## 1
Amino acid sequence: MIPAPFAYHRPQSLQEAIGLLTQHGQDARVVAGGHSLIPMMKLRLAKPEHLVDLQDLGELRVIRSEPGTLVIGAMTTQHELIGSDLLAASCPIIRETSLLIADPQVRYCGTLGGNLANGDPGNDMPAVMLALGAIYRAQGPDDERDIPASEYYRGIYSTALLDEEILTSIRIPIPADGHGWAYEKQKRKVGDYATAAAAVVLTMADGVCTSAAIALTNLADTPLFAQHAGEALVGTGVDEAAIAEAARRAQRITSPAADVRGPVDFRVHVAGVMVQRAIVRARARAG
Amino acid sequence: MTTETQSTEERTQKLEGLGTRRKRVEDVRFTQGKGNYIDDFKLSGMLFGAFVRSPYGHARVKSINKEGALALPGVRAVLTAEDLKPLKLHWMPTLAGDVQAVLADEKVLFQGQEVAFVVAEDRYVAADAVDLVEVEYEDLPALVDPNQSMAAAALVLRDDLQGKTSGAHGPRKHHNHIFTWEVGDAEGTARAISDAQVVATERIVYQRVHPCPLETCGCVASMDKVNGHLTVWGTFQAPHAVRTVASLISGIPEHKIRIVSPDIGGGFGNKVGVYPGYICSIVGSIVLGVPVKWVEDRMENLQATAFARDYHMSGEIAATQDGRVTALRVHVLADHGAFDACADPTKYPAGFFSICTGSYDIPVAHVTVEGVYTNKAPGGVAYRCSFRVTEASYFIERMIDVLAQAGHGPGGSTAP
Amino acid sequence: MAETHIKLTVNHRDVEILAEPRLLLIHLLREKLGITGPHIGCDTSHCGACTVDMNGKSVKSCTVFAVQASGAQITTIEGLVGADGSLHPLQEAFREHHGLQCGFCTPGMITRAYRLLQENPNPSEGEIRQGISGNLCRCTGYLTIVRAIRAAAEQLSNAREAAE
């Protein structure tokens, strides 16, 4: 319940923050909303000697659009994502997913960057970013680089981000007008992590599916992009048979852990159900 | 709150007699955050206690090194069983007639069991000191399946009970056996079952659960050494029992002990028993001469305080072809964990389980409850005041359902 | 580690204090400032008994370091009482509609309900239930809590209309 001692830093600029990470290396951790890191610190499972608080970096808290791209600052909170008219109009899957994360208090503090950056397989936003084809922008001491979400997740808590880098923004290709979307999440109770969850983003033209992206949450060490499952929908009318085939293909790439949320075969079963329901809802929403 | 005086007529009118709706008096302070729960108490000079707990379910304690913890500024004491032994405080009586280790005496018997008690100037220092106490364990295999507790080759759990062939509730037939309680007509029931036209059987496991009140257990103990008075405030559903146990183990006469139950954040039975935290706080206060507060965190509450249920029930229900019940027999295996700290305030070790014939007209019945030890947290309790009535109610309703599903229901031959 | 200087406003009073960086906000409130309304009910940021209103947001004060709250405006359950001692409509409604039994979840519950009604002055039953999903109660089963919040919403709405 009581964390181990640490030194606290509250940088006033991104450069200052990166400087602190460079100076202290593995002994330093950034804190964004704090609702993943601080519970770990209270259990003494995480004992950073230096905590770098990003809350004063206003430039990381933004939601805007550039031609063809939505740009969301990494420190934008779930609450801000939910309240954004821009996102509601142009990329509504984000709001739907945010509302399924934790509870109102956690959503006031928890950030998009925090949900994406640390490689926790239970987090919901990574699969959504895979389905959207998002790109993460990271700032290091010497340069800035873009990392596609599809290349970011390596293993449990293992990502492409270097120790001295900070995730600054997430860049999302604006989904086509009239796209279909859904995030379907099975959980034991409100606020829980997913037993299984699926993100679906698709487009239809004249009753035929022209693109489909399916991604899965908490069914492996990393979020999963179900490429082959999406292909089962393209060129079809997204009928029952196509949906069933997509769900089967998605199930085949999962390797969930048996845990308090259920044994392996149960979680694989639920994965299939989540994919099916998400496709049905996405299809119904497609204009 | 009004300070106007009202006339008798006004008051009589306002009272309105039977059925008048009244607001609770305590809600005034609770809705303003002005309750007095145990962790709200601050006394001058008060210290804070915290436990070192066993990560193992069953192990020998080879050594405990307190030096690192004692060297931490702000730490005032680190108590172990060795410190409590000369005062004979390292074991305490339970409400069920067993004994429970206050601090592990050479052996730990469940994961989360109390091994050492750190007393420090604040809870942050206490938490750091807990991490600095070095305990060397020799890990032993753990017995967690009560169905294996009385196997011939079952591990010995309670070294302290070796050679004791009887306990508080009668003879003991095995080193992990606590009691056997029988009620009803064994022979008559056996006859009725063997003669029956229909017999349905079912095995029902009512799993271990935890009452989990939102406020965890805790206390503040304050020994006034000058006047010989002990005052203990705490999360006590049964303050009189706490006073008796405190007097028994400390030697202070009951009339010099004051037990206070202030506002409590739920109990549900979890706060009936006497926990090592209470005893260690009392000892800490006696030794150090200042008040000592102990408040557990949620994981400690779930791991180490009294659970509820954990009844493994095998039922047989006999009936005529047209659904008239003729007999009921049940055997219960009761898993009490490492110490029988059952807090059913009745003289029966299985509470009121004997109501398990329910509201049905059953001419003959027989109940056997066998309590056994395992490497789990001690208990159980009457969760929501149940005294095993919940287990009994579930049992009988389930047995009637099983009988009905076998094609024979009370009052008819077809299931509804 | 060395203590840090923290300045913040709690229930309209300015506070200055020295504290270790690892001091949790809940402990700053309860241990250093004697504000014992918010409670600790869990170790894992689930129960919400510690909920405070910080800079216009419902926040679980057990999951924030006091240093992070430096510069913040914080209201706890105690701060919802009027300067003249009158109870907030939520506090009255919880009393009226039996929205509590042991009272341990109540400070966090009411503090969260306060912000919920700012976000959504006329919530449906479903919206109330979702809105308090970060606050656990072990006594009531939530029905009377939802009723109390609904009643307070109506009360506040009537008061707003009367003022217009």
## 2
Amino acid sequence: MKPVRLRLVGGAVHDPANGVDGEIRDVCIEDGRIVASLPDGAPTLDARGMVVMPGGVDIHSHFASSSCNHARRLIPDEHAADPAPAPALAEDELPARSGTGGTVPSTFTTGYRYAGLGYTTAFDAAVAPLTARHSHSELDDTPCVDGGIYVLMGNDEYLLRQIEAGEQDRARDYAAWLLRSTGGYAIKIVNPGGVEAWKSGQRNVTGLDDAIGGRKVTPRAVLETLAGAANALQLPHPVHIHCNNLGIPGNAGTTLGSMQALSGRRAHFTHLQFHCYGGQPGQGWTSAAAQVIEYVNSHAEVSTDVGQVMFGPAMTITADAPVEYLLHKSSGRRWTNIDIELETGCGIVPLAYKDKAAVASLQWAIGLELFLLSADPWRVVLSTDHPNGGSFLSYPALIQLLMDRAVRDERLMQVNPKLLAGSALADGLAREYTLNEIAIITRAGPARLLGLGRKGHLGPGADADVTIYNREADIAKMFSTPRYVIKDGRVIVEEGQLRRAPAGRRLRVAPEYDDALLPDLRRHFDAYSSVSFANYPVQDLPGETVPAG
Amino acid sequence: MTGPRTVASVTCLGCGCACDDLEVQVREGRIVDISPSCPVGRGWFGDGSVPDAITRGGSAATLDQAIAEAARVLAAAAGRTTVYVGPDLSTRAQCAALAIADLLRARVDTATSRPAATGLLAAQRRGRAAATLGEIRNRADVVLFWAVDPGARHPRFFSRFIDAAGTHVPAGRAGRRVVSVTVGSDRGPPGGDLELTLSTAEEITALSVMRATVLGHPLGELPADLQQAASAAALLKEAKYAVIVHEAEPGGEQPDPLRAEGLIALAQALNGPTRAALSTLRAGGNRSGAELALTWQTGYPMAVDFSKGFPRYTPERRALDRPAEAAAVLVAGTSTELSPEVAAALGRTPVVVIGPRASQTPFATRVAIDTGVAGIHEGGTAYRTDDIPLPLRPPLPGARSAAEMLHTLLAALQGGRKR
């Protein structure tokens, strides 16, 4: 076969993983990978005057899960308002698919819109193991992005029993077995113990040392066990943690306590903005972003994505079901709750963040504070917890807020200031992100945190996923309409139009475990599961395994 | 002919409970026994024999001829086509049918019954509080059956989820209180710890009384029947984990269209004082799968119209409510659930049927391609009533695959290009 080559000529390349900061240089592509050079006469794409970055990597999103599908079902009104006819692809492509948008777009539309934004890799951050087969079906229908799933374990019945029995090795083996059985990529913890508490009538846990549902197990023990498991299994991504007390005033104490509990151990704390509130329940809210980010800045083992709130419609989808009940009661909006046997829960409430609302304005400010006070962009990366804090389509507007102080200050003048007194943002933060820092928080950083050696950079051997932007004064416009997007070496977006829609590749891990686990696990399934042990693992998994770190 | 063999961990799609622990005995290419025994499962599997014909205009044809004719008939009617996605297909086959519908700008209909559709719409207005089936077994200490006795249509429901011990209900049935509600001729199960009988005229009022009881609203003097309903609600409220079970595809008379919303509202309200879920029983096949695949591909769970080039939601005007409006129809799966009126109308329309027993369709077809049945002859995934996906382990593999046939038709409609 003749090699397929492409030389991207003369762009300003931002490849921070390889120390390249806006240098004018060519990027060479052969057979889907970046190469050091190409023979003369290779086909070229003129990128002169443009900005070249690796394809975007979304470390935390909700777009391909049973929970997302429950959320889709809840919003026919949003879908009707955002029809998505099939894009006109190149003539040698199969016809594209139509769909609908809104806060939770249909699968094909999700893939097309990610690509249209220059994102080529995305992970669904919360999948109940029992529904993993469903997530893979959705990913099969989500083109243009490579991706995978994080597997929910922080409220798992079998895991809680092992922790209670002091069986740490078995807990680790079980985590490995779950990852293999589900085709998962990372261990996810959501409100450790809190979902089990919700299901067992305790309603929720309030802190790291509460007993979970009357057991001799605490959220702290869940965190320690699963962080230990992820590190012992040398997973490419450390344990991915949604802390206890999400959205509750005063929760910064719990967040810092969780970080301290895992001190010295690698751990990723997700959508940190939702966990940085000062004040006390019933007595008001303040920003605690400065305290929390100070801890992050000084602890290299901690990483985080921000979970920025953007004004406009959102859809809250989470395994943190008790939080969704409170949100339903306080907002009066539609509410879906699905309890998932032996594993977790799921809560869904459609929401809108309004700049006239004091709490939403505080949340917006806290997210920006985390970004602007971060000392290490490699460990504090971009997310909106799509669609919880806002759609991934709002990333360009968020990037503009980070890069352009004038825009940010103007926006700040429009929001409800009631709870912002004394916050760092209100006091004035002058920092403006550079293009290189944006390249770090949207691709190089997430790829490194995920242990994806072939993503997020443009060095030889990397997957040839590249995004090329026109240089524009309007940063939001620049990042919302890439001129070209290249996936696996092929141009899929040309002049801002989607022209190709290749299937995404699945990324998963396959850690080893001791088979001695299986007889006991089988007894547990036979006793309590409504699905046969033999039918639980997802067979014929597509995609490739990413090796241990 | 192959010798006797046993296939284990087989998923049965005889009803929405989708038991996946069956052992199926096969001898000489026929299913001879299933275990555990279940009359509905036995009826679903039968002996596993299905016809193996391909017809064009009622006469035998080659596959190539049939696919070419199907593509011609459907393409000629693009923009005015209806695609019916039946329940006896794997999700992969259903997805192929949806891809065809998108390409043809067709209107899509499914085996979603009217009561099930009413429930889907109510859940879109309110959300819902639900749980997977295993949560009933593991947690429910009070279970209320609303106008349904699972015994006949879901024979293993009691043994699997009520009688069996669970993580939080170690005594099984003895650790649960069962409330049996009869509405009109729709009887609750026998042997309830509390039994309640309502006329159809009182049903919605009773649901309102129960919700008011749960919310703690003062009710004043109530007639005897409604007082009983309030007592049932009080029992639910005292539960640690209450489950309300109802049926979305009842066999008998059509339920009150407000029933589903009333039950959803009651289950949601119970989550104030305690924890509760509404469990919706469905008939057999992969009907949840069709609704879920439609949802992830279009955003809507049923009644999708692609005629404008994107999905539109038309639950008030389902395609097969007006079958005569279609210029051509693709039936993916069997047509057995279509009403006689719809079948009669389809007999006057060019119809392509690709699915199990297509050649035995009770109306004239332009093309019929027999395939195997999902879970009996064809693998893949199907969904349980609680939206949990299960693998299919076909005990009799080898029949023509519906998913493959629909993908072949899709490729033909795409001009022969295959991804």
